[in-house]
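testing teh design pipeline on a random one, pls ignore if ur not involved
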C-alpha cells in the first residue's frame, strides 16, 4: 500500500460562526478594562458618567494599536450593542454605587413596600452586573416578571413606573456620546 496525496487546496468553511474570535476579543477587552480602571474613559463607563465621542475614539485607537481587536471586531461590537460605549458597559457592568445612585432621586422621600424595594434592588443588581438595561426586560424577563408579572405598573403607580423607565434610559444614555 502506498499513500499518495493528490493536489492540496484550501477549503473554505461556509457558515462557520466566528464567535470564538469575537469571544476572545471580548475577553481581551475585559482584561484591558480591568487593568486600566484608572483611565478616565473607563471610569466614566463604570461610574455612569457621560462618555464623549473623544473618549470612545481614544479607547478604540488604543484597542486597535495594542492588538486587542481589529477595526472589524470593533465595528461588529458597535453594531451589536448600539455603540461602543454600550458594548463596553455591558462587558464590565456598572459600579454598584453608581447603579444605586441612579435610583436615589426616584426613591427620595418615598416609602416603598417590601415588594417594591425588592424590585428596585433587582434593577440595581442587574445594572451592576450587566451595565445596561433594555426596558422591554421589565415585561418579559425574570426576575422582573416574577416580581411583577404585568411590568412595573403592577407594583408602582404610573408616575413611578414611568420614573423607573426614565432612570433606566438615562443610565444607558451615559454610555452613548452626548
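output:
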Amino acid at each position: 500500500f502506498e499513500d499518495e496525496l493528490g493536489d492540496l487546496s484550501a477549503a473554505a468553511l461556509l457558515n462557520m460562526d466566528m464567535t470564538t474570535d469575537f469571544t476572545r476579543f471580548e475577553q481581551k477587552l475585559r482584561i484591558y478594562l480591568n487593568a486600566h480602571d484608572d483611565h478616565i474613559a473607563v471610569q466614566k463607563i463604570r461610574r455612569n458618567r457621560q462618555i464623549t465621542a473623544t473618549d470612545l475614539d481614544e479607547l478604540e485607537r488604543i484597542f486597535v494599536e495594542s492588538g486587542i481587536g481589529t477595526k472589524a471586531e470593533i465595528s461588529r461590537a458597535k453594531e451589536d450593542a448600539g455603540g461602543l460605549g454600550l458594548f463596553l458597559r455591558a462587558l464590565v457592568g456598572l459600579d454598584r454605587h453608581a447603579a444605586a445612585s441612579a435610583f436615589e432621586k426616584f426613591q427620595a422621600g418615598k416609602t416603598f413596600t417590601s415588594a417594591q424595594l425588592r424590585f428596585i434592588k433587582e434593577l440595581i443588581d442587574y445594572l451592576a452586573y450587566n451595565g445596561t438595561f433594555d426596558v422591554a426586560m421589565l415585561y418579559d424577563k425574570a426576575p422582573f416578571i416574577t416580581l411583577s408579572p404585568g411590568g412595573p405598573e403592577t407594583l408602582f403607580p404610573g408616575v413611578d413606573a414611568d420614573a423607573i423607565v426614565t432612570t433606566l434610559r438615562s443610565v444607558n444614555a451615559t454610555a452613548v456620546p452626548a
